[in-house]
Amino acid sequence: MGDMKQHQPPLTIEEQIENLKSIGLVIKDEEYAQRILNDISYFRLIKAYSINLKTKNGIYKKDVTFEQIVELYLFNSNFRQLIFPEIEKIEINVRCRIANYFAETYGVLGYLEAENFVDFKYHKSFLNDVDEEIRRNSKAPFVRNFRENYEEGQLPIYALVEIFSFGTLSKFYKNMKNPDKKAVAKMFDIGYTYLESWLESVSYVRNICAHYGRLYNAKLAKTPKLYKEYSEAGIGNNRIFGVLICIKQILKNDTHWNDFVENIELLFKRYKKVEFKTMGFPENWRELLEVKN
User: Fold this and answer.
1) 189 exposed, middle or buried (CB, 10 Å; 0-12, 13-18, 19+)?
2) pLDDT tens track for 199-233
3) CA–CA dist 140, 137 (Å, integer)
4) How far apart, in whole angstroms, are the C-alpha atoms of residue 176 and residue 61?
5) CB 17 within 8 A of CB 33
6) C-alpha to C-alpha distance for 90 and 98, rounded to whole angstroms
7) CA-to-CA distance for 131 and 171, rounded, in angstroms?
């Protein structure tokens, strides 16, 4: 495996500040820096938000300040909180439409039958996930009601989807038969191959938001399939803007979508050190992201 790196010894907050100064970071107010580093770990703040702010030899570029790094962190926090409610709308909509369609087509317990899906092995894994979700939510009143008062203690699909993680919901859709996927996707006026891809990507971004992760200047591991018009316009699919384009298509009938777009622009104006291109935003991002009335 070659030479492995040694873990560095821990540093006190005062030592962290001295280390940052030694590699060129401008710290105007050391008491402020101490307060911040006492609330937000060095690893979460400095390591994540110094990307692109250093030269190749690990020294900060000229005039980069501690306050600038904090600004990027605060932008990311607010940006993440803006996006999460939009993802929540998708999650609730998709749960509802999948459950309604599946119940009408295969019955409320149709999810138990492997022949209603494409991949039998995947279905078996899915049922194991279901058992785990039910176990984790066993004290929820509606779960207890179905377990204790209904035949064989099984949850109907319309209740079961409420304890799915978004990841499980995405996987459930992926394993549905193509005609069934098409029927659900048609409700959103989207091709089923696109919806399948988008749900995976949105689920991935949702987890970043839920675990206080970084969207600013981040390359995404789960990339969505983009419409040709966006790919040809140079929009990448490995940054958050590409995912926002997909979210727009799913929520295009949401009357509040353009308010969300306006709030993004207000964030950019508030945090002036943010380089929106590092998140895949082109110069005409607002024109692309807004829904035309």
Assistant:
1) exposed
2) 999 999 999 999 999 999 999 999 999 999 999 99
3) 6
4) 51
5) yes
6) 12
7) 15
In total, the chain counts a number of residues equal to 293
Task: Please state the pTM of the whole predicted model.
Answer: 0.93
Residues 217 and 51: beta-carbon distance below 8 Å: yes
| Neighbour-count burial of 40, counting CB atoms closer than 10 A to its CB (0-12 exposed, 13-18 middle, 19+ buried) | middle
Report the sign of the C-alpha dihedral through residues 174, 180, 181, 185, in that order.
Answer: negative
CA atoms within 13 A of residue 270's CA, in its CB half-sphere? 14
pLDDT (tens digit per residue) in 150-207: 988 999 999 999 999 999 999 999 999 999 999 999 999 999 999 999 999 999 999 9
Token pair belonging to 279 = 């998140």
